[in-house]
Amino acid sequence: MSLQLHFHPFASFCQKVLIALYENGTPFRPHLVDLGDEKARGDFQALWPVARMPVLHDDARGRTLPETSIIIEYLGRYYPGPTKLIPDDPDAALETRLLDRIFDLYVSEPMQKIVTDRLRPPGGDDPTGVAQARALLRTAYAVIDERMKARTWAIGDAFTMADCAAAPALFYADWVEPFGDTHPALAAYFARLMKRPSFARAVEEARPYRGNFPKERNS
């Protein structure tokens, strides 16, 4: 099996790539990375010194690729399947990449800011940064909600890389800054994502790790 994915099933960006793999039934060998284990971290850093997951290694082509969007584009080019996650039409492809960036930068990143702040030692938290992250999430929700009023998936009728980015980002973002009661079009879109078999599989595989999600300090 040529493709090896170094990942953790509970990590949102790892789920983004898993969705892409599952959408097309792309065979791969999973390598679960435990960054809390010194040896595992060292082995992973030898593969990718930045030590951020996921990383895809392709034995057949001798390529090691970090960064989710690059991995998905690579899969589409060299391991295509029935679901074309980057449309052929240039305008649709541009819209896909735009929405992909919106979900990564304006949903995933502020969500992770809120989550990682809960892991800081007492007295080391960043309430200003968390407030800014929540404000950015609410702004992103409004932007996405408006776009989704007339769309089934992120760019329209086709499921794309943008939806791979959206599903895990929104899943965890809703845990820290709920949107179900305030953004109906976004909530309806998220409900469709939850029913997508590729994402439902990723959610189920991550279920055993839910106890690791940090709670708010006052909860």
Could you please describe the fold and organization of this structure?
The protein has 219 residues and is an alpha+beta fold. It folds into two domains: 3-78, Glutaredoxin (3-Layer(aba) Sandwich); 90-196, Glutathione S-transferase Yfyf (Class Pi), Chain A, domain 2 (Up-down Bundle), CATH 1.20.1050.10. Helix content is 55%, strand content 8%. It has eight helices and four strands. The protein has helices spanning 12-23, 38-47, 68-78, 90-117, 127-147, 161-176, 184-195, 197-206, and strands at 3-7, 29-32, 55-58, 63-66. It has a four-stranded mixed beta sheet with strand order 2-1-3-4, covered by helices on one side. A hairpin with a 4-residue loop joins strand 3 (55-58) and strand 4 (63-66). Helix 1 (12-23) packs parallel to helix 3, helix 1 packs antiparallel against helix 6 and helix 4 packs antiparallel against helix 5 (127-147).
Key traits:
219 residues; alpha+beta; Glutaredoxin; Glutathione S-transferase Yfyf (Class Pi), Chain A, domain 2; 8 helices; globular
For the largest sheet, list the strands in their spatial order. Answer: 2-1-3-4
Order of helices and strands: EHEHEEHHHHHH
Strand content: 5-15%
Q: Report low-confidence residues grouped into runs of 5 or more.
A: none
Average pLDDT across residues?
Answer: 95
**Total beta strands:** 4
CATH topology heading of the largest domain: Glutathione S-transferase Yfyf (Class Pi), Chain A, domain 2
Structural class given helices, strands, pairing? alpha+beta
